[in-house]
Automatic annotation (TrEMBL):
Required for a late step of 50S ribosomal subunit assembly. Has GTPase activity. CDD domains: YlqF. It comes from Fervidobacterium nodosum (strain ATCC 35602 / DSM 5306 / Rt17-B1). GO terms for cellular component: cytoplasm. Belongs to the TRAFAC class YlqF/YawG GTPase family. MTG1 subfamily. The keyword Acyltransferase does not apply. Keywords: Cytoplasm, GTP-binding, Nucleotide-binding. This is Ribosome biogenesis GTPase A. The lineage of its organism: Bacteria, Thermotogati, Thermotogota, Thermotogae, Thermotogales. It holds the Pfam family MMR_HSR1.
Length: 266
């Protein structure tokens, strides 16, 4: 799938976010790459290379939705080359600020937060900035609306950078669906099927997609007029709830070598 096709899935704010990051690139010292702990390979963006010469920190976010054992394994693996923080709903902004300060050579490092859609960038920026958000003022000369917020010895760009994963395979698209990084609607049927099979393996479910959806649809009362299951609705709700962690905690990327391959390629 080429990049244009991928872009077409995302709304206009993506282009704006990208422009804002590029316009502020020179000022940025440190970049937080937000990855999804459920799929650290899939969410490592091919656009990472924009930040070649920056200090890099990795946050494995949504770890509360991922497999606990793999969380530790991934953290240990990634820490071989990057400062890394395992993060979930409960993690405080203070722990992020401390990691940025301890891993930066600069006095007042300028920080940007980037990652693929829906991975938790805004949540992280909000946690860092917290109640200080109200005190900010926009700087002249920078795109209107983009602000640098000074807090606790670091300076944060109050605008997330939205990056893309390179969707060169259906498996990658399927994993992005599983973690909610692409909209669940209007995907190719094959992608739903592949996504279900990945889920089926990690969740150790012994049903085919059709049977599973039929049971799910019945249980949730997603029926058509005649009383038959509305498969379309069942499919949408299932993938939505799965991506929000309502079906359990799963990790879909488990190959460490692949992680270093995608990082090296960038
Ligand atoms: N369970 C869980 N949910 C999270 C976590 N971080 C963010 N979320 C949820 O994930 C969804 C997306 O979070 P955002 O912070 O808006 O993600 P984003 O990367 O800014 O998304 P875009 O701007 O659309 O690219 C929201 O519903 C958040 O509440 C986390 O650590 N754990
Ligand atoms: Mg956001």
């Amino acid at each position: 799938m080429d990049n244009d096709k991928v872009s077409a899935w995302y709304p206009g704010h993506v282009q704006k976010a990208k422009r804002q990051i590029k316009e502020n690139l020179k000022k940025i010292d440190t970049v937080i790459f937000v990855l999804d702990a459920r799929a650290p390979v899939t969410t490592t963006s091919f656009e990472m290379n924009i930040f070649r010469d920056k200090e890099k920190i990795i946050i494995l976010n949504k770890s509360d939705l991922a497999n606990k054992n793999y969380n530790i394994l991934w953290k240990n693996e990634i820490s071989k080359s990057f400062p890394v923080l395992l993060m979930g709903k409960e993690t405080s902004g203070k722990s992020i600020i401390n990691l940025v300060k301890s891993s930066s050579k600069k006095e007042n490092p300028h920080l940007a937060v980037v990652g693929v859609p829906n991975v938790g960038k805004s949540t992280i920026i909000n946690k860092i900035i917290g109640r200080h958000r109200a005190k900010t003022g926009s700087q002249p000369g920078i795109t209107r609306g983009v602000q640098w917020v000074s807090i606790d010895g670091i300076v944060v760009l109050d605008s997330p950078g939205i990056l893309y994963s390179e969707i060169y395979s259906k498996e990658i698209a399927a994993k992005l669906l599983l973690i909610g990084s692409i909209p669940v609607e209007n995907l190719n049927d094959e992608i739903y099927e592949i996504a279900f099979n990945i889920y089926k393996n990690v969740a150790e479910i012994d049903k085919d997609f059709y049977t599973f959806l039929e049971e799910f649809g019945k249980k949730r009362g997603l029926l058509k007029k005649g009383g038959t299951v509305d498969f379309e609705k069942a499919k949408m709700l299932f993938f939505k709830e799965l991506s929000e962690g309502k079906m359990g905690q799963f990790t879909y990327d488990t190959d460490f070598n692949k992680f270093w391959e995608v990082v090296k390629n960038d």
